[in-house]
Amino acid sequence: MNLLSLGRFLEVVAEYQGKNLLVLCHDDADSDALGAAWVLADLLGGITGVPRKISEHARELQFKLKIQVVYGPDPRDYDLTIVVDTADAQQLPGSLPTKYLLVDHHGNNTLVEGALVAVYEQVDSTCQLVWRICKGLEKKLQSHHSLALGAGIIGDTRHLATAANSTIADLAAILEEGGVSFQQLLDIFRISSRIDREIRLEAALSAQLHRIGDCLAVSAAVRKNYVYYIAMMLVELGADIAVVGYQQENNCFIRLAKNPSTVHYLDCYAIMSEAVAHYPKTNLWGDTDYAGFNGQAPIEDVIQAIIAELHAAEARDGTCQCSQRPKN
């Protein structure tokens, strides 16, 4: 992150102090997007906005912290919009601003160029960048702020399994300032309802096993949109690669995840992009370790296409050699 960008960001925010401010995160907002946007909006006296919906796996966070959200906001109704945790215009259906500040951590961000100012760095989570903004604003975190930022960090790092040392240090500082424990943070993610536990168990029991090279890939269709949670669960259970889909009428939600400690070379985003190339999409994003697709297609067809692409990648590149260590 360029410190000059952070300084200029703080200057612009100060210019709009007391005005009508929208902090907007991507559609189907996850815990990193929701936590980052809500903390920033709360500390700046603004409104938290989401284009259409919050993801199922972030609803526990919304419920437990009583996060108030405006759905489908029109940026023209606000004096300034801060876009948070968003990499592309397609992630803001119906709410794309023409003038905005940006706070984001994703690679291949296409919104940086058009931003008035961008606080942009490829760290593990956008919540880390919001934490730096809070320090620049000289705003002390309260317990609910710390829980929201912490939830974003552990959500984007698979409960710290992929976190950099600096990310863990940031999380410790965030929790310390807010006076909350790591156990309190984990409680934010605890799924409390019986139906949600049933859905997880059903997914585990009905999942299909695929052997691709030396890798164990698992696919599952679920009856509620917990695709992120269940993909992570399957990896934690021992899958090297997990493909999970949810169907809602003509719309499908697909997530592809890998265990980076066993699958060293596979690029999840490249696999997903090839598999869904011919389907209408509302969102497609990801990186080497994780990728997501929302669009119009039968989930069975997309899952089969992903499995086929994994087999093709193994035959072509040998990217699914889970027993091998990374090349130096």
| CATH fold-level label of the largest domain | inorganic pyrophosphatase (n-terminal core)
The name of the CATH superfamily of the largest domain reads inorganic pyrophosphatase (n-terminal core)
For the secondary structure, the number of strands is 12
Measure the end-to-end span: 28 Å
In round numbers, the mean pLDDT is 91
What is the CA-based Rg, rounded? 20 Å
- Helix-strand makeup class: alpha/beta
Q: What would you say this structure looks like, in words?
A:
This protein has about 325 residues and is an alpha/beta fold. The protein folds into two domains: about 5-190, inorganic pyrophosphatase (n-terminal core); about 195-315, DHHA2 domain (Diaminopimelate Epimerase, Chain A, domain 1), CATH 3.10.310. The chain contains eleven helices and twelve strands. Strands 3-2-1-4-5-6 form a six-stranded parallel β-sheet. A six-stranded mixed β-sheet has the order 7-8-9-10-12-11, sandwiched between helices. Helix 2 runs antiparallel to helix 5 and helix 4 packs antiparallel against helix 5 (about 145-155). It is globular. The two termini are about 30 Å apart.
Keywords, please?
single chain; 328 residues; alpha/beta; inorganic pyrophosphatase (n-terminal core); 2 domains; six-stranded mixed β-sheet
